[in-house]
């Protein structure tokens, strides 16, 4: 993310590569441009916010053996016509990197602002990422750079102060088995803040899928994350279960490490049965076991591609809550689509609260695809609860998908046109 009022490396990278690509006659340029307008009322002020978004992939050069040079970027500009917030107007750059593929063979090189992920952690960084495939069953990824700050995203920070480095090795010895090992190091203000190592594995056995992940934080000498998941899909059934244990993401050199905390412990189970054509019945239960006083949430509903309705009940430390929610999605031909959703909940946040509060939320809208990659969507929203007694909002979006490719040269324009013989 980059603020419009400052110049930064990703911004310079975008401008430079666009000029290079224009001279080199990019063979392919695809992406999406959208303009959005969102009107709503905050605590005391009205807000009229326009958004301009751009996502693009430019194939600047392509050679033999899968070799290519590609530019990827994702931008968003926004401001407020009614009451500007701090930092308005601003331009945010989420991605801006160059990717060189298969030079050398089986190697991809990405330079610039990019999101990196390993089984042990993730980060948004300004740096370099190398992906290498020594064998079809083996993939190695190594990256390093400086972490992007959410408080000051326009500044390119020194890697010695805000280092992000990591690696991921992924192996697939057989089609049904996947194994991974990860490492990630983060520094904040020159000191080690997180140092994670992790492993993960996935196994497919017929209609069953098993997945597990674990990460250890060397900086704090504690387990940082553990996840176990099982999925079973026999015929018309879908059954899944999951258990997650995760510690809060607190830097080792932060003052917040002095505060005693408990890890998140969440268990979830879901069962779904297709009873007729695309109509399914779903039931789920979720238990938040983080505190001594646990929170339980259960739900039961029916769903189909065009509609769904469900009932949810919650009790425990997070408060008592009962509600009904539903949605409808109707396609009116190939170009028009109408949708609506609503929910009604009665909740009690504190045990001392005698009567429950009501919460209503509803939205309705339409989507039109006139052709040529254009999509126009409009939506109205309404919310009312104990805090927001009357909250109405409006959303409008106009988006255009584009794809431009260089046409291959005709035989008449080639230098060897009309020549006979070898």
Helix/strand layout:
Layout: H1 9-24, E1 28-41, E2 46-62, E3 68-78, E4 90-101, E5 107-118, E6 121-135, E7 138-147, E8 163-174, E9 177-188, E10 191-205, E11 208-217, E12 222-232, E13 237-246, E14 264-276, E15 279-288, E16 295-304, E17 307-316, E18 320-332, E19 336-348, E20 357-371, E21 374-384, E22 391-405
Antiparallel strand pairs: 1-2, 1-22, 2-3, 3-4, 4-5, 5-6, 6-7, 7-8, 8-9, 9-10, 10-11, 11-12, 12-13, 13-14, 14-15, 15-16, 16-17, 17-18, 18-19, 19-20, 20-21, 21-22
Describe, in plain words, how this protein is organized in 3D.
The chain has one helix and 22 strands. By secondary structure, it is mainly β. The radius of gyration is 26 Å and the shape is globular. The protein has a 22-stranded antiparallel barrel. The model is unreliable at 1-25 and 409-422 (pLDDT under 50).
Shape by Cα distribution: globular
Q: What structural class is derived from the secondary structure elements?
A: mainly beta
Q: Provide the β-strand percentage band.
A: over 45%
Number of strands: 22
SSE order, as H and E?
A: HEEEEEEEEEEEEEEEEEEEEEE
Q: How much is the radius of gyration in Å?
A: 26 Å
Low-confidence stretches: 1-25, 409-422
Mean pLDDT, all residues: 86
Number of helices: 1
Q: Between the first and last Cα atoms, what is the distance in angstroms?
A: 56 Å
Describe the sheet with the most strands. Answer: 22 strands, antiparallel, barrel
Give the proportion of residues in helices. Answer: under 10%
């Amino acid at each position: 993310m980059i603020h419009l009022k400052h110049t930064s490396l990703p911004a310079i990278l975008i401008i430079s590569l666009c000029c290079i690509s224009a001279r080199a006659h990019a063979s392919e340029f695809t992406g999406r441009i959208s303009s959005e307008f969102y009107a709503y009322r905050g605590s005391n002020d009205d807000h009229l916010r326009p958004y301009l978004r751009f996502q693009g992939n430019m194939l600047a050069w392509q050679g033999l053996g899968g070799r290519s040079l590609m530019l990827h970027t994702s931008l968003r500009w926004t401001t407020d016509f009614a009451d500007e917030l701090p930092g308005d107007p601003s331009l945010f750059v989420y991605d801006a990197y160059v990717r060189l593929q298969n030079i050398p063979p089986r190697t991809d090189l990405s330079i610039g602002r990019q999101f990196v992920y390993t089984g042990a952690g993730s980060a948004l960084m300004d740096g370099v990422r190398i992906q290498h495939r020594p064998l079809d069953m083996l993939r190695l990824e190594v990256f390093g750079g400086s972490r992007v700050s959410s408080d000051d995203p326009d500044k390119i920070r020194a890697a010695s102060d805000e280092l992000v480095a990591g690696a991921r090795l992924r192996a697939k010895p057989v089609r049904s088995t996947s194994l991974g090992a990860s490492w990630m190091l983060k520094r904040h203000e020159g000191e080690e803040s997180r140092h994670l190592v992790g492993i993960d594995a996935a196994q497919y056995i017929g209609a069953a899928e098993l997945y597990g992940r674990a990460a250890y934080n060397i900086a704090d000498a504690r387990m940082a994350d553990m996840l176990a998941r099982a999925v079973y899909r026999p015929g018309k059934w879908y059954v899944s279960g999951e258990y997650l244990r995760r510690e809060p993401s607190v830097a080792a050199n932060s003052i917040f490490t002095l505060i005693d905390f408990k890890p998140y412990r969440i268990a979830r189970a879901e069962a779904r049965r297709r009873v007729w054509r695309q109509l399914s019945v779903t039931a789920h239960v979720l238990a938040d076991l983080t505190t001594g006083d646990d929170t339980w949430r259960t739900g039961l509903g029916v769903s189909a591609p065009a509609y769904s309705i469900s009932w949810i009940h919650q009790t425990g430390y997070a408060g008592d809550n009962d509600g009904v929610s539903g949605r409808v999605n109707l396609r009116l031909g190939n170009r028009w689509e109408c949708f609506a959703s609503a929910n009604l909940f009665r909740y009690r946040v504190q045990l001392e609260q005698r009567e429950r509060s009501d919460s209503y939320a509803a939205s309705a809208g339409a989507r039109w695809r006139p052709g040529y990659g254009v999509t126009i969507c409009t939506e109205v929203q309404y919310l009312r609860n104990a805090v927001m007694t009357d909250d109405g909002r409006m959303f409008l979006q106009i988006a255009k998908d584009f794809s431009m490719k260089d046409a291959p040269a005709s035989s008449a324009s080639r230098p060897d046109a009309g020549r006979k013989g070898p």
